[in-house]
């Protein structure tokens, strides 16, 4: 596909190399007698912010002409490398190039220009600068806790730390602080997201589930609060020996698993506030083996025709990686393939994981309430 007109040579773009040519043929619009006008890029940095190095990565695109806005999108994605996420909407096309940086693409049909605006997202400290030091400390733990939006990077220990910090505040103050956290999310993504960004809400769901669970299963969010085999018999979060594992690798339906206001109302009505802090009983690696067994039992009960298929190797690997993250040993986010995936497959394989489990069991690893970490005595 011919993607741009340029005097540049040897530029690789999405698998296509631009040949050295000063005036390549211009494709005609179907049924039109005039050539399609070319598009160009204008790279900007959000006012009052720094570019975090991405301005230099995109500068060369301003010297290139493109056939269509879609080609510019592909070029920007290729230039910035691996991405956190992408989203589309009436507010533009957003590319999350890191946890703190987004690039917003806006098309101007009259000028045939796509503006790429680099924007920095504020940190939780910056967002909560007017709050007390104690509240900021709790919100930082909340912000570092795992999210249903990113189950592949789920860290049970981080969820325990945030849950306990909120629990110590008491039910009324904890819910108020979580509400303030959600408001900060709206401020954080103002002008940097296609509509309401769900990251903060996906992080609030697990916390509400653990705060309002006095038993192992708790009250997990369901699709509108209705019955489903996974939610009723096993739960999106399964706590084994005090370690909260996420049991799913993403929802198959678009949107939230349940609207947050509905969930808050439901758990306050049907759930009960924790009676004590979360305190794991032993090794997270041993707990991972137990949650695998519970998952298999749930599969036999609810999916008798395909119990083995329901308990996929991807799920098993997820539980084992979650356990390793509890020890501050993150073997990379497996994503969906490539070398990182192979590394995770290796470390979560039966032989390696069994050896690691025995090693930490022999050391007597346990949860320490004072440091809020798994420690070796």
How do you describe this structure in short?
The chain has helices at 54-58, 69-80, 124-127, 133-143, 156-167, 171-188, 199-211, 229-233, 260-270, 284-302, 307-310, 313-325, 338-347, 350-363, and strands spanning 4-5, 12-13, 16-17, 40-45, 65-66, 85-87, 93-96, 101-108, 113-120, 237-240, 243-246, 366-368, 373-375.
Present the secondary structure layout.
Blueprint lengths: L3 E2 L6 E2 L2 E2 L22 E6 L8 H5 L6 E2 L2 H12 L4 E3 L5 E4 L4 E8 L4 E8 L3 H4 L5 H11 L12 H12 L3 H18 L10 H13 L17 H5 L3 E4 L2 E4 L13 H11 L13 H19 L4 H4 L2 H13 L12 H10 L2 H14 L2 E3 L4 E3 L2
Parallel strand pairs: 4-9
Antiparallel strand pairs: 1-5, 2-3, 6-7, 7-8, 8-9, 10-11, 12-13
Helix pairs in contact: 4-5, 5-7, 6-7, 7-9, 10-12
Describe the structure.
This protein is α+β, with helices and mostly antiparallel strands. It has 2 domains: 4-16 and 36-120, no CATH class; 124-375, no CATH class. 40% of the residues lie in helices and 14% in strands. The protein contains 14 helices and 13 strands. The protein has helices at 54-58, 69-80, 124-127, 133-143, 156-167, 171-188, 199-211, 229-233, 260-270, 284-302, 307-310, 313-325, 338-347, 350-363; strands at residues 4-5, 12-13, 16-17, 40-45, 65-66, 85-87, 93-96, 101-108, 113-120, 237-240, 243-246, 366-368, 373-375. The strands form 5 sheets. A 5-stranded mixed beta sheet has the order 4-9-8-7-6. A two-stranded antiparallel sheet has the order 1-5. Helix 4 packs antiparallel against helix 5, helix 6 packs antiparallel against helix 7 and helix 10 packs antiparallel against helix 12. The N and C termini lie far apart (62 Å). Mean pLDDT is 74; it is low at 1-32, 223-233, 251-255 and 333-339.
